[in-house]
Amino acid sequence: MKTSVRIALIMALLTLFRSGTASALDLVHDFSYHPEGQHPEGGVLIHEGKVYGMTRYGGGGDGVIFSMNLDGTGYANLHTFGAGVGAYPVADLTIADNVAYGMSPCTTSMGGPGTVFKVDLDSGVFTGLKTFDSDPSGLAYPHGSLALYENKLYGMTYMGGAGNMGGAGNNGVVFRINTDGTGLAILHEFAGADGQYPEDSLTIANGVIYGMTSAGGSGGGGTVFQMDAADGGNFSVLHEFSGGTADGANPYASLLLSDDVLYGTTQNGGANDTGTIFALDISQETPDFTLMHSFGGESSTDGRHPKATLLQLGDLLYGTTELGGVADLGSLFVIGLDGGDYTQIDDIESPESGFLGKSLAYHRGYVYLMSRGHTHQYDFGAVYKEETLENYFIDTGYEALGLNFSAEDIANLCDLYYAGKQGQSPDPVLADGRNWYYFDEEISGKEFGDSWEQDGIYYFYFGSGVKSGEGGGDVPEPSTLLLLLTLIGFGSRMRRNK
Q: Residue 418 belongs to what H/E stretch?
């Protein structure tokens, strides 16, 4: 299905999900006064049915690591910073084998160059793995998250280098460390010409590290770089940001790698110097840079200054802006992988939910995100979720039932959709070797998103539903909502599993 059609279906579906409110964001948890955390800067991570994250302040100390249920209940502080081993975390956690790893940009509430830590999610035991001010390498002020690759942790610091804290160039480094805190190794020290002041995290695939710096390079607006994960060798600059109308400047997020293309955002640059979305094709000897979108000017209602790493769902990219929208408090947007049909899904309209964090997380049909809120007395930030077209029946239905839709199956379903949309009574379509029909009836005991097999017939249920059969008989009236979910959901899953 063409991206423009998919975007149109997104907006139609979101309209159906909204119930006349000013915002489609659903509140999961509103951070409150002590002992809860306050003012999160990063994003959340969904792990085994729970939400995990960090806040920069609160908890009666210098920020917290927290967990809660998917519906926002069961909030708990797993750790409160303030014992001299980390303070004011601003990024995300990385979880493996039920252990969460992270970094903080400060060592104590009085400052210091930061720490690497872990917390056991079973026992709640917190362990400081490395305090940078106790290391002669001079690493300082990590602003991003850790990347786990082949049982080792990789990260960047905003400043630092060999010799002393700040280093000769004070431009930041790429490092690697074992999961027990030993074996710290500097893989690359930025010199300015190749970038300086990395803000976020690394992306690692097939033994290659990809990342960005927020400044430096020949244009002064930052760089995109790559190097070998094994030893930092073969370092090269893939793109140098220079700003202006045709380029971005000052990336604050991480890169997303999809099919040999790096996708990212910049805080500044573009037609209005309010940020960009870009793609960098690295399949060619000389990487091909494409400016996908320039955000709007100060007087527009478009989002401005994107900060979060893009989230890919099928052939769509979701992201947020820190400012802009109808209340100048940020927005949630979607854009196709081909750069087509940029659309603002939602604008943030209340101070409590303003200023969205660094990343998005997907789980069972929802995008989860955090906002830091205003810094005045009662706006402590919140966790939100928003319905997407990657919905419950993809996870519960597709995986549980083991159906395998081909590109031709998707085309057949699309044809059926257009016929039904035009008010026709279409014949059933063939998908995964079965005929598929629509039904428009309530089924007792079943809930939105349920999927099951009964007497050889497969069902996907959303109040109305779609079911397989052997053909014959009348075709029930089509259900538009279900078909939107079916076409987009299965299409996305089919593309991901190629």
A: helix 407-421
**Is residue 220 classed exposed, middle or buried when 0-12, 13-18 and 19+ CB atoms within 10 A define those classes?**
middle
Q: Are 198 and 214 in contact (CB under 8 A)?
A: yes
Sheet of 173-178, strands arranged across: 147-149, 152-157, 173-178, 185-189
* CB-based contacts of 283, cutoff 8 Å, min separation 6: 260, 261
Q: Do residues 372 and 90 touch, judged by C-beta distance below 8 A?
A: no
Would you tell me how many other CB atoms lie within 10 Å of the CB of residue 439? 18
Q: 144-168, pLDDT tens digit by residue?
A: 999 999 999 999 999 986 544 444 5
Contacts of residue 208, defined as CB under 8 A and 6 or more positions apart, other chains included, come to 226, 227, 228, 229
* Distances from the Cα of 386 to the Cα of 226, 347, 374, angstroms: 33, 12, 21
Residue 11, Ramachandran bin (φ over 0: left; ψ between -120 and 50: alpha; else beta): alpha
Distance CA 210, CA 235 (A): 10
Q: What are phi and psi of 229, to 5 degrees?
A: -70, -25
Which of these ranges, 241-245, 272-276, 494-498, has the smallest mean pLDDT?
494-498
**What is the pLDDT at residue 345?**
81
Domain limits of the chain?
395-496
Element (H, E) at 412: helix 407-421
CA distance 135 to 146: 18
Q: How far is CA 176 from the centre of its chain?
A: 23
DSSP code string of 144-184: S--EEETTEEEEEESEE-SSSTTTTT---EEEEEETTS---
- The radius of gyration of the chain's CA atoms, rounded to the nearest angstrom, is 24
- pLDDT for position 18: 42
pTM of the entire structure?
0.80
3-state helix, strand, coil split of the chain in percent (to 5) is 15, 40, 45
Written as one string, the DSSP assignment of 64-110 is EEEEEETTS-S-EEEEE--SSS-B---S--EEETTEEEEEESBSBTT
Sheet holding 434-439, edge to edge: 429-431, 434-439, 464-469, 457-462, 451-454
Question: What gap in Å lies between CA 174 and CA 298, rounded to an integer?
Answer: 35
Contacts of 415 (CB under 8 A, 6+ apart): 426, 429
Q: For residues 396 and 394, what is the distance between their CA atoms, to the nearest angstrom?
A: 6
